[in-house]
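Workshop exercise sheet. Pairs work together: one partner reads the sequence aloud, the other fills in the structure field after running the prediction. Swap roles for the next sheet.
Pair: D.N. / O.F.
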Amino acid sequence: MQNRITELFDIQYPIIQGGMVWCSGWRLASAVSNNGGLGLLGAGSMYPDVLREHIQKMKKATTKPWGVNVPLLYPNINELMEIIVEEEVKIVFTSAGNPAKWTGFLKEKGITVVHVIANGRFAQKCEEAGVDAIVAEGFEAGGHNGREETTTLTLIPAIRQQTSLPLIAAGGIGTGKGMFAAMSLGADGVQIGSRFAITEESSAHEAFKKLVVETGEGGTLLSLKKLAPVRLIKNAFFEQVHKAEEEGATMLDLRNILGKGRAKKGIFEGDLVEGELEIGQVASLIKDIKSVSEVFNNLLTEYRDVRKDAASNLRFDI
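Structure field:
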């Protein structure tokens, strides 16, 4: 399964693990890399010294390629970037900001740079900034989402028309069928977050993992649209935010409700009532907590089966 993404990162399969806050530590990222994908450390929930510790543990846990995801809105981003350079990280995914800000700096250090976007406006900015690849993340995703609420089904072919850069699809992809669909739309690879968040190696709290498994269709909704839109499981905190948004809450109001450490409380500490429980819409398809190796086996087996049977499975023939 060699293509532009596998060649760019020198990996076996065009499968990238999302760099999710409170889930993507060295255990998860190294397991993904060791299974032939690209593991990413989620720097968005790490203090600088914690990131350095995880980078050093990654170096011991795998000899395969891996990288770091850095949200550009991170308050101590200068320190994070210094550590990334000092520790000789080879691949960086940036998100939640303008790619022009750090791409040049990273490229000068010989680092492969990928930027996450949620709309077509940023595709041109990515090309101008000189990134090596783009992640196009649709409305179904759990992380910081686009305000346009464009679904992956629409976003991928739209971005493909606007750029010739290697393209990675994200948002709502957690199965081999989803992977096949995304690549049929023009993606060169996929980034999978939620399915990897609910694995044995994920650093998320077991209570959070079990809740995701129990979450059915319609159990998540995009929230905090005036701040940084995220998809949340419906719990007491979600209802508080939802009510405030319906009543016209300002950005300041929402910041006060959110407070500090809300995602840590929910995802990492397992507070299912007051925590901010971020997860993608694909949560309704996750029925168990598997190892990363089992997830890979399922993804690849289903992808190969649907690719083989695509023509015979068509519901309409022209």
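Discussion prompt: Strands lie at 15-17, 39-42, 66-71, 91-95, 112-117, 133-137, 167-170, 189-192, 220-223, 230-233. What would you look at next?
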